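Exercise 3.2. Students should predict the tertiary structure of the chain below and write it as C-alpha cells, then compare their answer with the key that follows.

Predict this chain's 3D structure.
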Amino acid sequence: MRIGQGFDVHAFGEGDHITLGGIKIPHNQGFIAHSDGDVLIHALCDALLGALALGDIGVHFPPSDDQWKDCDSTVFLKHCHQLVQEQGYAIANIDCTVMGERPKIKPHAEAVRNKLAAVMGIDPNQISVKATTTEKLGFTGREEGLAAMVVCLLQPNQTA
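Answer key:
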C-alpha cells in the first residue's frame, strides 16, 4: 500500500467561473493560472505522484512549457492515473478537501466525484469530495482564492 498527499492553491482573478474537479462552476471570478487552475485536480495529481515517489505535477507538466497553457487539467489527471497503473497499483480511495468561502462547493460535490471517477475509470464511491471554510481567516477567508488538499491510498493491482 502507498499513501500520497497533495496540496494546491490558486488566486482568483478575472473570469466568470472556476474549474474544480473538471467541472465548471459559476463564480464572479476565475483562477489565475497557467493551465485551467483546477486546484482540486492539481492536488490530486500531486497526491498520486507522491504515492509513487515520481515528483510533482510541475515536474511532469512544467508551467514554463507553453503546451500546457490553458490546458484542461483532466489531461494531467489521466497521465497521473496511467502512471499509477503502469507502476502496478490501483486506487483504493481518494479523500479531497477544498478550502475557501466561495463559491460553495457542496452543491457541486457529487458532480465532481462523478467527473473524477469517470476520468480515472474508478467507482465514485472511492472518492470523497468535501469543503470547508477557513472562518474568514487568511487568503481563502478573504475570498482571494481557493486551496485544495488530497490524500490517496494506492494498493497493488490484484492479479487473477
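Discussion points: The CA atoms of residues 102 and 143 lie 7 Å apart. The helical segments are 39-51, 57-60, 74-86, 109-120, 138-141.
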